[in-house]
Input
Amino acid sequence: MKKVLILNGHQYYDIVARGELTQKIIDKATQFFINNGFEVKHTDIDKGYKVEDEIEKLIWADYVLFQYPVYWMGVPWIAKKYFDEVLTQGKHYKNDGRSRDDISKTYGSGGLLKGEYMLSLTYNCPKSEFNNKEGFFDGLSLDEANIAAHKTFQFCGLTPLKTYSIHDIFKGDMDLNKELVQFENTLKENFL
Output
């Protein structure tokens, strides 16, 4: 049986970030994985966690789905704190990858985890801001703008899957059902 860890990186803020959208996305993912024979574990970072349990969950998982709202161009600080606390225990990487004896071993290649990860993001900004030299992100793609999250997982040995994102979440005309269908299509592409 394939095993997936779903990380909820949402951090609660009254009025602007209560977590309903993130939870609907996670509920959709959970149902998808159960329906397709995956064993599923969850961590809702904002509700607390035990570092030792999280260390073991990451080792256990074949896949990690990290769902989070992008706050100020990055992961919510509580998600960063989670990675700092859980990943600095030395269980997910042997070293930074480099070797005095073998110069072909490069920085970031010492990860011990085997598997894949997917980022699932929610944004206030429109999708048109990415891959647009005139846009806010100066021509960066969605994945390039989220390089820190990608490199965190890759440093530990995981391989990226296609990223999914929902944009313009505060605009008021988002079709959630359409977004969830597109999200499920990405899950099928990545995991089936």
Notes: The longest strand covers residues 63-69. The radius of gyration is 17 Å. The mean pLDDT is 94. Residues 20-35 form the longest helix (16 residues).
